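> forwarded from #structure-qc
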């Protein structure tokens, strides 16, 4: 049994995108898949690809989708902000870009297209929550230190006020300065009002980026936390085992 990775080119809105797909070559039938959305930087040789491989080692295919475009990466905070901001400002366009990644994952022969989940980190956490808000064809989504602010009330399709069908898990650092304190109860109200099956797990004394070993910027409030990283990964395993049953 060997976990393998391959790159997959796909397209949306005239952009060429590149996903990383992880699977185990011992599989003899399609498996559930976890689509992973990168953070604002989308670093080359990414942390997210490592998570895809780890998931494949546990029996679930992993697919890291691409929001920005093939070969496009943020080299620092300012570049990452410039790449992320247009998608934050047009959340419907963001969902279209994300849906293209879901479609690319579902098209892989190793994947059971009816058993998909999505997870995301930081900006990617906001992305997967928006997929749930738009009722994308997912069994569940999990956000790691993600931005919790919903799209504008007048965002229009694909957003609506219908019940949220995918199950939702939000894994949050309580002291995350990128998530204003008032947005946490607002998120809980939003999920409850839309009849979502939702969980919010908050880690005390924990800042932004707590799963990323490279996060070491206390001046902006982004610091790795090994304990919160371990606990949140365990929570994800429980969540995926439940939704893929």
């Amino acid at each position: 049994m060997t976990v393998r990775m391959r790159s997959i080119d796909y397209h949306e809105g005239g952009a060429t995108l590149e996903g990383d797909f992880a699977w185990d070559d011992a599989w003899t039938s399609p498996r559930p898949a976890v689509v992973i959305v990168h953070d604002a930087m989308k670093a080359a040789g990414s942390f997210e690809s490592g998570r895809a491989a780890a998931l494949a080692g546990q029996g679930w295919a992993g697919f890291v989708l691409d929001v920005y475009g093939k070969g496009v990466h943020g080299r620092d905070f300012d570049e990452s902000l410039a790449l992320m901001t247009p998608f934050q400002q047009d959340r419907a366009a963001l969902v279209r870009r994300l849906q293209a990644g879901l479609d690319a994952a579902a098209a892989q022969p190793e994947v059971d297209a009816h058993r998909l989940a999505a997870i995301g980190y930081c900006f990617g956490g906001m992305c997967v929550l928006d997929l749930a808000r738009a009722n994308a064809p997912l069994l569940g989504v999990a956000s790691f230190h993600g931005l919790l602010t919903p799209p504008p009330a007048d965002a229009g399709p694909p957003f609506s006020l219908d019940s949220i069908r995918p199950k939702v898990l939000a894994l949050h650092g309580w002291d995350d300065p990128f998530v204003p304190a008032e947005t946490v109860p607002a998120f809980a109200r939003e999920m409850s009002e839309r009849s979502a099956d939702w969980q919010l797990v908050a880690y005390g004394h924990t800042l932004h980026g707590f799963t990323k070993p490279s996060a070491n910027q206390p001046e902006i409030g982004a610091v790795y936390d090994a304990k919160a990283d371990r606990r949140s990964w365990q929570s994800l395993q429980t969540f995926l085992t439940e939704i893929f049953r």
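QC bot note: The two ends are 23 Å apart (CA to CA). The mean pLDDT is 96.
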